[in-house]
Amino acid sequence: MKALVYRGPGLKALEERPKPVLQAADDAIVKITKTTICGTDLHILKGDVPTCAPGRILGHEGVGVIDTVGAACTSFKAGDHVLISCISSCGKCDYCRRGMYSHCRSGGWILGHTIDGTQAEYVRIPHADTSLYHLPAGADEEALVMLSDILPTGFECGVLNGKIAPGATVAIVGAGPIGLATLLTAQFYSPSRTIMIDPDENRLGVARRFGATDTINNGKEDAIAKVMALTSGIGVDTAVEAVGVPATFELCQSLVAPGGTIANIGVHGLKADLHLERLWSHNITITTRLVDTVSTPTLLKAVTSKKVDAGSLITHRFALDRILDAYDTFGRAAETHALKVIISP
Ligand SMILES: NC(=O)c1ccc[n+]([C@@H]2O[C@H](COP(=O)([O-])OP(=O)(O)OC[C@H]3O[C@@H](n4cnc5c(N)ncnc54)[C@H](O)[C@@H]3O)[C@@H](O)[C@H]2O)c1
Ligand SMILES: [Zn+2]
Ligand SMILES: [Zn+2]
Question: Which of 218, 249, 289, 296 could form a disulfide with 223 if both were Cys (CB 3.0 to 4.6 A apart)?
């Protein structure tokens, strides 16, 4: 089968690889029908994720059809249409029992990281009963790919951890797919202001269409001064970091109001400064989280009932043969205006 393989920092190739086989009784093999590329795949290619070894098939998002299941898999059978979660969970270990699937003792974020991923014709899914979801009949496959990672990530790491509440003021730093997924799911709670901050003018335009009340181009404007002007000089109740560089985590520290929350989502490859000399007395909360995907069943209902227009994040489509072009388009988003690219084998 064809697969996109990480070959070390800066290197990737479309290669011919053997079709995966069942390794454990609770595995399933899924034939991929749609997959996509994540900002985290770009972090891996930059060398920010050293736990991902060269030779790994990338990708942790997708939908597909069950090809084969192991003897212990009871909830799925060959032919079932499924959503793949970016987080694999056994459902039985201490972390899973606490709902913290991201730290499952034999799962977590392993797909396209420490085991082969979804940017291929087939993928092996461990703990299939608790890591896959049945797709409702007639579901929009492309829209549901957004549920593998970005919608639960924006919702759990940004909205829930950020304690976004009715009437709250919110700043989201980074208007990539994750920042935009945070913006879409923040609206469940009716915040009074959602301020989107990004140097990419096109993405700010998308954010306004998705309901941002204000946008700031911090490549041209002073984001701190503008947020203070919009919030009577106190800052925002919730500042969401959706980029993953030190500058944006530090910017959030200047935007958060006393009593507020900084919800970090970004994957960081470098250390960042924490300004306790100023913030020690501000009663703030800082949260970090690897998405658990505990909200997937809820979000699946929100997407299928069209409360969230997940498909609106999709800008480009490619065949798996052209996945290198898909990476090129996704990696040059400022020029190509790419948000999520759909890849179909
Ligand atoms: N915590 C988790 O579980 C989890 C899950 C998925 C993704 N992530 C991470 O979330 C982050 C965002 O993902 P994405 O797919 O949206 O990435 P992306 O690269 O597509 O988008 C990042 C956005 O940040 C903007 N940006 C860059 N520098 C900026 C600055 N100084 N100020 C404001 N904006 C700036 C870019 O213009 C871009 O629009 C990444 O770090 C990704 O790895 C985390
Ligand atoms: Zn991802
Ligand atoms: Zn577990």
Answer: 218
Domain that holds residue 27: 2-149+292-344
How far apart are the CA of 135 and the centre of ligand 1, in A?
Answer: 28
Distance CA 289, CA 118 (A): 23
Question: CATH no. for residue 115?
Answer: 3.90.180.10
Q: Nearest ligand, CA of residue 108? A: 3
Q: Specify the number of domains making up the chain.
A: 2
Burial 308-338 (b: 16+ CB within 10 A, else e): bebbbbbbbebebeebeebbebbbebeeeeb
Q: Give the Cα separation of 1 and 316 in Å (integer).
A: 23
| Amino acid occupying residue 164 | I
Instruction: Quote the ligand 2 centre to 40 CA distance (angstroms).
Output: 5
> Separation of 169 CA from ligand 2 center, angstroms?
26
Mark whether 162 and 264 lie in a shared domain: yes
Q: Is the CB of 174 under 6 A from ligand 1?
A: yes
What global pTM score does this model have?
0.96
Collect the ranges in the chain with pLDDT lower than 50: none
200 Cα nearest atom in ligand 1: 37
Q: Pick the residue whose CA is nearest to atom 41 on ligand 1.
A: 266
Residues 9 and 96 in one domain: yes
Count CB atoms within 10 A of the CB of residue 225: 10
Q: How far is the centre of ligand 2, averaged over its atoms, from the C-alpha of 251 (Å)?
A: 23
pLDDT digits (tens, 9 = 90+) for 294-319: 999 999 999 999 999 999 999 999 99
Q: Determine the residue of 216, 243, 291 to mutate for testing ligand 1's pocket, defined as the one with the most ligand atoms within 8 A of the Cβ atom.
A: 243
- Cα–Cα distance between 336 and 166 in angstroms, integer? 35
If asked whether residues 129 and 9 sit together in one domain, one would say yes
- pLDDT tens, residue by residue, 89-111: 999 999 999 999 999 999 999 99
Q: Are residues 130 and 195 in the same domain?
A: no
153 lines ligand 1 (CB under 6 A): yes
